[in-house]
Each structure stands twice: as structure tokens, then as C-alpha cells.
Structure to design on (239 residues):
């Protein structure tokens, strides 16, 4: 496959998924939207991945390219049926592009926290092989407050109802992160918005503490990331 990857911060890339893609001979082109790069025609690609970022979906005045990105996602997913994977901001953008709603979290989730599969998640393809309840990296202060029509919720948590979502046969997204690598926390903590949220949630030593917490779970995260990657490829092959 050849994938198009939309990025919103240089350090918020596909992470460990890059290793899986390389091992399987798949390629991708990354477009850095926050740096002013233009989105190429989707016809040249077999799938669309949309990564996270420190901006919010409603900040179109500060980041005018968000409008075009949402239109592009809607066209790719709804009109063309392109296989889609969205993480964190990418999850929220999918929801809003298809008619759902995203808003500020009543309780931001920042840290290594638990997520629970729903009945749809436990019985579906995308989450197949994952534990019914598992730990993951969370780093968000906004969330999907209303899913688009026809969407299914695949995972949830006590403070964020829509942790993972499916729309149609080939569009999947997750609010949480499993794509993390050894330098993910340090890289993301250098982004001012992420740093401030981290300090607010975990105190001045938040980056150090979170890095330690992630290191303890890194093997589990990598295994789950590989499983989700394999499962996503299976969904992408569907017609």
C-alpha cells in the first residue's frame, strides 16, 4: 500500500507504525499541514492516516488549513470510501468531518490510563486480539461529544465516552495512543500546549513521571500497536 499521512506537528508522526510499514514493504507520504504543506490528490494513495496535534478542531481562525483538511477527509471517507485511520486529533477530525461534534473535555485525560472495549469493539475486526480492558497513553483535553450518524463506538473510558470509533466498513479512529516509542513523551512534552496540559495534570515533574510510566508499558503498547496495525490492514482490504 501507499498511504497519505496528514501530520499537525513534526514529532507527532506514525511512531512505531513506521517500523511495521517498512517491514511489510508499504510506503507513505507525510504532509506537514502546520508547516503550510499542501494535501495532494487522494487518488494517488491506497489509504489515509491522520495523526494527532496540539491544536483543536474548532481553531480554524488560528489554523485556516483545518477547514480544507475536514473537507478532504469527508471526501476521502464518505464519497470515495478510502481506508482511514485517525489518532487523537485525527479521531476528532473524522468525527467532525462526517457531521459529529467535538468539544472541550470536562476531565482531560493525560497519563497512562485505562480504556474499555464496548460490545461492538470486542466483536469487531479493528480491536480483535486486544484485552477487554487495557492501558494506553492519553494526552487530550478535547473529545468527541457526539458521533456522526452511522458511527459505532468501539471503546470507552470513565470520563471519555468515545475512545474509538468506526464509520462504514473502512474508517477507524482512536482517541488514545499506542504508537508510542522511547522518545515520544520527551518529544511531545517540548510542544508548549502539551507541556502546559501535562504540568496541569501531573505537576512540574509530569514529563519525567509520564516518561517512566510509558517506559513500563512500552512492550504492551508496541504489541497492541502491531495488532491494531494488522487489524487495520484487514479492514482496508474489505470492499
Amino acid at each position: 500500500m501507499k498511504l497519505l499521512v496528514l501530520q499537525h506537528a513534526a514529532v507527532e508522526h506514525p511512531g512505531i507504525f513506521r517500523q511495521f510499514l517498512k517491514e511489510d514493504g508499504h510506503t507513505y507520504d507525510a504532509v506537514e499541514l502546520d508547516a503550510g504543506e499542501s494535501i495532494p490528490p487522494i487518488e494517488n494513495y491506497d489509504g489515509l492516516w491522520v495523526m494527532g496535534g496540539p491544536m483543536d478542531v474548532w481553531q480554524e481562525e488560528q489554523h485556516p488549513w483545518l477547514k480544507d483538511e475536514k473537507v478532504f477527509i469527508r471526501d476521502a471517507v464518505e464519497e470515495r470510501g478510502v481506508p482511514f485511520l485517525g489518532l487523537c486529533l485525527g479521531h476528532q477530525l473524522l468525527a467532525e468531518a462526517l457531521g459529529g461534534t467535538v468539544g472541550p473535555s470536562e476531565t482531560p485525560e493525560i497519563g497512562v490510563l485505562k480504556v474499555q472495549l464496548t460490545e461492538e469493539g470486542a466483536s469487531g475486526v479493528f480491536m480483535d486480539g486486544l484485552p477487554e480492558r487495557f492501558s494506553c497513553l492519553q494526552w487530550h483535553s478535547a473529545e468527541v461529544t457526539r458521533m456522526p450518524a452511522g458511527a459505532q463506538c468501539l471503546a470507552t473510558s470513565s470520563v471519555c465516552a468515545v475512545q474509538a470509533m468506526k464509520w462504514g466498513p473502512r474508517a477507524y479512529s482512536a482517541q488514545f495512543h499506542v504508537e508510542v516509542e522511547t522518545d515520544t513523551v520527551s518529544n511531545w512534552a517540548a510542544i508548549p500546549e502539551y507541556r502546559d496540559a501535562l504540568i496541569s495534570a501531573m505537576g512540574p515533574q509530569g514529563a519525567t513521571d509520564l516518561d517512566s510510566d510509558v517506559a513500563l508499558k512500552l512492550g504492551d503498547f508496541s504489541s497492541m500497536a502491531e495488532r491494531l496495525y494488522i487489524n487495520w490492514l484487514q479492514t482496508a482490504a474489505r470492499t
Summary: The mean pLDDT is 97. The CA atoms of residues 11 and 233 lie 24 Å apart. Strands lie at 2-7, 27-32, 47-50, 84-87, 101-117, 133-146, 152-156, 164-167, 171-174.
